[in-house]
Amino acid sequence: MKSRPRPGATAEVTFIAEKQHAIDFAEDGMPSVLSTPWLIWFMEHSAREAMLPHLEARESTVGMAVDIEHLAPTPTGSQVACRAQVLRSEENQFHFKLEAFDEHEKIASGLHKLAVIDKARLAKRVNRKTKKE
Questions:
Q1: Residue 81's closest CA among 114, 108, 112?
Q2: CA–CA separation, 39 vs 17, rounded Å?
Q3: What letter does residue 53 receive in the DSSP assignment?
Q4: How far is residue 30's CA from residue 48's CA, in Å, rounded to a whole number?
C-alpha cells in the first residue's frame, strides 16, 4: 500500500436506482424498488472508493464481511448516495461504517470489512482451483 486511510476518512458513491437494480418480483401490485443485493453492491463500492487512492497498482480489494440493514424502500428512478467511513484497520483488513440515503431518508446502514490483496497472488490461488486434474 502507498498509504493507509485514516479512521474517519470517507468516500461516497451515488447512483440512480434503475429498473435493472429493482427486485425481480416487482409485479402484480408490488412496486418497483431498489433490491437489497444491488444496494449492498453499491455500498461496498463506496468502501472500495475510500481505499483506491491508497493502493499500489498490483493491489486490489476484496470484501470479507458485510452486515447491512435495509431500512426503507427506494423507488426506481431515485438517486441514492452510499457513504463509507473508515473505522479502523488491522494489518491488511479495513473496517467501515456504511450508510445509504435516497432523496428522502436513510435507507440502509451497517458495517463492512474488506482486505487489501495482491492481484497476482489471488490469481494464482484461483488458478489452482480452476485447473482440471
A1: 108
A2: 9
A3: G
A4: 33
35-80: per-residue pLDDT in tens? 999 999 999 999 999 999 999 999 999 999 999 999 999 999 999 9
Cα(36)–Cα(116) distance, rounded to whole angstroms?
25
The C-alpha cell that represents 91 in the structure block: 494489518
Cα 73 to Cα 89: distance, rounded to the nearest angstrom: 32
How far, in Å, CA of 65 to CA of 73, rounded? 23
Specify the residue for cell string 480489494: 61
CA separation, residue 47 to residues 9, 77, 108 (Å) = 10, 24, 14
pTM for the structure as a whole:
0.91
Cell numbers standing for residue 66: 458485510
Which domains does the chain show, CATH number per domain? 10-130 (3.10.129.10)
H helices present in the chain, as ranges: 36-51, 119-130
The single residue listed with the C-alpha cell 500500500 is 1
Instruction: Quickly tell me which residue has 461504517 as its cell.
Output: 97
